[in-house]
Amino acid sequence: HLSKRLTAVAQYVPQGARLADIGSDHAYLPASLIINHRINFAIAGEVAKGPFENEKKEIRQLGLEKVLIPRLADGLAAVTADDGIDTVTIAGMGGSLIAKILDEGQDRLSGVKKLILQPNVGENRVREWLMSHQYQIQNEQILEEDHHIYEIIVAEPTVCPVRYGEKELLFGPLLLEQTSAIFNAKWQAELKRCEKTVVQMRQAKTIPEDHLMTMQKKINLIKEVLPDDD
Ligand code: SAM
Predict the structure, then answer these.
(1) What is the mean pLDDT of residues 36-64?
(2) Which domain holds residue 187?
(3) Does a structural domain hold residue 177?
């Protein structure tokens, strides 16, 4: 049984995909997709020994050894050309780590038609990487589970990606076109956090002026995007 977050990630995996789930931990996501006959081959990549043992145990218990392959490797090094991977999921880590994994594994992405990414924070870092590496964002989703708000970004390679500005990169070009209470709640909370940080920075006095400016700029962007509350 998958969490609401991973269920949402799973829905973007195409029927019959050959999937690499990077940072898979218990391999819940690929295991569920296989059990539900959505896919019949996946790699579960893990860089850390503990989670790697978790996925091996899970795969053995489910009897999926032939179709779900655990690999102890850093990022996309888990993928080889022979695997014929066409879809990659990377979920439950920070956006800068996701961008780093994609960046370092670019040579493994040549046959990949779809990236399904679920950063916990730093979503703008993921969008920046996608835009500057010829990917087009196809879908975005925001959801809440256990008082956490998560975003999912789905992208496909393209010859001519749309160029996004700062605002689209921060909030998500497709999320900006939807109206959602969860989106508003996320940015309301972020606005409060930024405003508090600015007050603290002013008090500290040692904070470089450009940090303050960046924060102020972000505050202005959030205010622009949030609906007026009066
Ligand atoms: N993907 C699962 C999910 O969304 O529920 C597990 C998320 S867990 C919080 C993040 C996992 O990513 C950890 O098990 C960690 O070991 C793994 N990880 C972190 N950096 C990695 C890397 N460079 N390559 C592969 N796995 C990595």
Answers:
(1) 97
(2) 182-225
(3) no
